[in-house]
Every structure is written in structure tokens, then in C-alpha cells.
Design brief:
This is Aquaporin. The chain is an all-alpha fold and 254 residues long. Helix content is 68%, strand content 0%.
Length: 254
């Protein structure tokens, strides 16, 4: 009977009914909305050409996105875990570190935040800058859709692998460095993939500008690719790379 009760409790925890039904769950939800909105606003703003129509360099955009996430992680890590990315949430759900209902709520909140961030960016830009599509992620014309999915899967695989590694409670070598490590993984991925796919690695980041601009061309690439990469990273880390020193599960709060 005891074993059955424990299994039942574990199932309920993974579904997360009790967790999401609490009033204080609104706080992390707000954190995800706010964090994703700020990330999309600041990150996509870095893609906008300057007054003389000079284009932002990949290095400039890469550092902006990476440092933005690192900064947000310090603020929102203890509040919501600072996922600010549906792919990260999918990865943590796959590895058993996020309940199903919490993941669904987080993804909805992140999408709302991404749209809000893009709407605010549109509101503060002149019409000429708006023609740049609000920093939308676009596939290089020389790549097929399948290649785009593969690129997005690979760079998101790196991100989610790093998230699992540096926030693993079994490791002591990364204490205090998780936000910077995650931010650096985002920056290096952007440096490599901006010329190929625009380097989304975050479905909410691509969704926001798409909704405000009203362009959905190949938008599915920026959902399938990152989510596949996140799922694979979670499985690889959970089964083969996770540090083993205790029996308790890792905590993914910064």
C-alpha cells in the first residue's frame, strides 16, 4: 500500500494539479511573462538598423541576447526558474524537473510575453524601422526547411544541455555561474546560427514578431527545431551525463 501511495503521489506531482492551483503560482507566471517580454524587446531591438540604416553585426545581436538572459536569470531565477523559453520548459518537462500543467502554463505565459515585448517594440519604433520586421527570425534562402530545423535543434540542444548541467544540485563547480554560463551558450549559438536561421532557439522569441508583423512563413521551423533539440538534450543529460552523488532530483532554480 505504501509503494502504491508513493507512486500515486509521484504521478500527481508530475501532473502538477496541486502546484498550479495555488494562488502564489501567479507570481512565477508573471515572472515568465515579464522576463520573456523584456528578452524579446531588448533582443529584437538589437536587430533594428541604426539611424544611418547600418545593420547590427551578429556579434552585437549575440551579446545582447546572451547578456539579457544572464541578467534576467539573476532576477527571475529564484522566482520562476527563468525559463523565458518554451524549449527550455519542454526540456525540463522531459527530464522530470517540471510538471505537465506547470509547463503548459509557462509556455502560454512565455508566448504572451513574447507578443507583448514585440508589441512594445513596435510602439517605440518609427515606421522606417518597422519595415525591418521587428527582428524576425528568417531562414537563409540557401537552406531547406529541414536544414533550418536541424540548425535550430543543434543550438537549442546546447542551450538545454547547459541549463541541465549548470543547475544540477549534484554539482558544486558551477555555483553562482549558472546565469553567465547559460547566457554565454546563447551568445555562441547566435554567433554561429544568425546567418543561417536567425538563431531563434526560443519559439516565443520568434512568435512575438511574427504575430505583430503578421508573417507566419516557415514559423513552424522555430517550434519544431528548438523543441526537438531540447527534448534530446534532456534525455542525453538525464541518461548519460547527470552527476550522480545523491538520490535526490536536481533542482532547477537558480
Amino acid at each position: 500500500m505504501t509503494e502504491t501511495a508513493e507512486q500515486s503521489t509521484g504521478t500527481k506531482d508530475y501532473i502538477g494539479i496541486e502546484e498550479v492551483s495555488k494562488l502564489n503560482f501567479l507570481v512565477p507566471l508573471f515572472g515568465e511573462i515579464l522576463g520573456t517580454a523584456i528578452l524579446v524587446f531588448i533582443g529584437c531591438a538589437s536587430c533594428i538598423p541604426g539611424p544611418k540604416s547600418e545593420l547590427a553585426s551578429p556579434l552585437h545581436i549575440s551579446l545582447t541576447f546572451g547578456l539579457a538572459v544572464a541578467s534576467l536569470a539573476h532576477v527571475l531565477g529564484p522566482v520562476s526558474g527563468c525559463h523565458v523559453n518554451p524549449a527550455v520548459t519542454v526540456g525540463l518537462l522531459t527530464s522530470g524537473n517540471c510538471s505537465i500543467l506547470k509547463a503548459l502554463c509557462y509556455i502560454v505565459a512565455q508566448c504572451c510575453g513574447g507578443i507583448a515585448g514585440s508589441a512594445i517594440l513596435r510602439a517605440v519604433l518609427p515606421d522606417k524601422a518597422f519595415a525591418t520586421s521587428l527582428g524576425m527570425t528568417e531562414l537563409n534562402p540557401g537552406l531547406s526547411a529541414g536544414q533550418g530545423v536541424l540548425v535550430e535543434a543543434i543550438i537549442t540542444f546546447l542551450l538545454v544541455l547547459v541549463v541541465h548541467a549548470v543547475t544540477d544540485s549534484h554539482r558544486d563547480d558551477c555555483k553562482g555561474w549558472a546565469p553567465m554560463a547559460i547566457g554565454l551558450s546563447i551568445s555562441v549559438a547566435h554567433m554561429a546560427a544568425i546567418p543561417l536561421t536567425g538563431s531563434s532557439m526560443n519559439p516565443a522569441r520568434s512568435l512575438g514578431p511574427a504575430v505583430i508583423v503578421g508573417s507566419w512563413h516557415l514559423q513552424w521551423i522555430y517550434w519544431i527545431g528548438p523543441c526537438l533539440g531540447a527534448l534530446l538534450a534532456a534525455v542525453v543529460y538525464k541518461l548519460g551525463l547527470r552527476a550522480k552523488s545523491k538520490d535526490d532530483e536536481a533542482s532547477y532554480d537558480f
